[in-house]
Amino acid sequence: MKTIGFIDYYLDEWHAEKYPEWIEAASEGRMKVTYAYGQSNLEGKLTNAAWCEKKGIQLLDSIEAVVEQSDYLIVLSPDHAEFHEELAQLPLRSGKPTYVDKTFAPNWAAAVRMFELAEQHRTPMYSTSALRFAAEYTGLNMEGIESICALGPGSFETYAIHQVEPIVSLMGTDVKRVMWTGTSNTPSLIIGFANGRQATINHYGANCPFSLALRSEQGESQFLKIESNFFGAFIENLVRFFDSGVPAVPKQETIAIAAILEYGKKAAETPFQWLDLPE
Question: What is the CATH number of the domain that holds 42?
Answer without folding.
Answer: 3.40.50.720
